[in-house]
Every structure is written in structure tokens, then in C-alpha cells.
């Protein structure tokens, strides 16, 4: 039921972990299933030079976060803020409808990390 | 928010994988979050000699399945059928209420694997 890309990013998630001395950290929770997602960004000259995530969430949350971090790494903060969960799901060749709420976690965590970055400056 | 035992079984899950030529295979789905769990058992003389699981589910599903497989390995089929998700959660020093539905997946998957075992005989 899951696309090959979803299974690949689930089995070999990119950018899992923490960043010490991150410039922004976002933590969001999912009211539907109770899962949490933590996103760390390193920012240089408005460019996201590094990003890592940690989650207790399911395979769909792992796959969408993995893809989302790949999509914003090396991009400007403005581009990162424009990334929607819909675009991430498309990059993964889709997700079952029941799993759409898991992809929202990644989008929200990126926005929370950026807002934390702005707050710190 | 999660106990040390939950985090241990999440980070180092026991008995993850598949069993080739399993004597029983159970697959169950969780209507609440859409996650699935697959459980494989090897049975010898009514004793569960090996058990493995695979899931796309969240950290709580991984931790409860890891603990559940430890609890039924080497036990009789009858004992395995008596294992409740409540007992598994207690063995893990508890789970947040929002995550109780994830622990149900392991109990149901064990029962499905045993029922598949009986069906095959
Ligand atoms: S949220 Fe689906 S198994 Fe835990």
C-alpha cells in the first residue's frame, strides 16, 4: 500500500538525530495519535545548512520527515517555510489518506524550528 | 513522558524481523491511526520457540511489541493467548493514555498469529 519511496525513507531515514548548538529547534505534537516530532536547524546567512529530526512517530511520520529534511537542506528559510505537507507527500509518490495527519507533523516542525530561530535572534 | 523501559524497547527493539517458514502469521491493523503490525511465530509442541514482528507503527507500537514478544517467547500457546495489552503496558511501566491504542496492536497480532497456526494444522 506504500510507495517504494515511502518504504525507502522509512527503512533508511535521512537526517535522523539532533544538532548540538542548533540555531532553531521546533517541537510539535499530533493530537490525533499523540506522537511528537522534534526538528533542529542550523542556519547560515538565511540558508538552512543542516537539519535533523527525531520522532516517536510511525513509519509515515519518519518517511515524510526524512523527505522534508532533504527538501529544505541547502535552501533559504523562505523556501523552507513554503514547503507544504502536500508537496512532501507528492515527492514520496503519495500516502494513504489515513496517514496524511502524520505528514503534517514534519511541516509544522519545520515552521516551529524557523520561528524558534527568529525568536532567538 | 515515556518510561525508561519504553524508550529502551523503542531504541533497541527485540525480535524485529520475519520468520521464514513460520508456523503462524498474524497481521492486524489499527483503525485509529491506520498502522499495521505483522507477527510471526514458530511453534514446537505447543511452545512458542520463536517470535518476530514487523510494524510501520509508532514508537509505542514498537516498544509494546518488543516487550510482548519477550513475554511470550518460550511460553505455551495458552499462556501467550492470555497476555493482555494491559499486562504489556505494566511490564513497560506504563504508557500515556493517548498511546494505549498502539499497545492493542501487539496483543491482537499475537492472537491472529495463533489463530493462523491453528488454521494451518
Ligand atoms: S500511532 Fe499508530 S501504532 Fe501508535
From TrEMBL, chains A, B:
GO function terms (MF aspect): iron ion binding; iron-sulfur cluster binding
Residue ranges occupied by any NIF system FeS cluster assembly NifU N-terminal domain in the UniProt entry: 1-121
Source species, domain of life: Bacteria
GO terms, biological process: iron-sulfur cluster assembly
Protein's name in the database: NifU-like protein
Species the sequence originates in: Ruminococcus bromii
Amino acid at each position: 500500500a506504500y510507495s517504494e519511496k515511502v518504504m525507502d525513507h522509512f527503512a533508511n531515514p535521512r537526517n535522523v538525530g539532533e544538532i548540538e548548538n542548533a540555531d532553531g529547534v521546533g517541537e510539535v505534537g499530533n493530537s490525533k495519535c499523540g506522537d511528537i516530532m522534534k526538528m533542529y536547524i542550523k542556519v547560515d546567512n538565511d540558508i538552512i545548512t543542516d537539519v535533523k529530526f527525531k520522532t516517536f512517530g510511525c513509519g509515515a511520520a519518519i518517511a515524510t520527515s526524512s523527505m522534508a529534511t532533504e527538501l529544505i537542506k541547502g535552501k533559504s528559510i523562505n523556501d523552507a517555510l513554503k514547503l507544504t505537507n502536500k508537496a512532501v507527500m507528492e515527492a514520496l509518490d503519495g500516502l494513504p489518506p489515513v496517514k496524511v495527519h502524520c505528514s503534517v507533523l514534519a511541516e509544522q516542525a519545520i515552521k516551529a524550528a524557523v520561528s524558534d530561530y527568529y525568536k532567538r535572534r
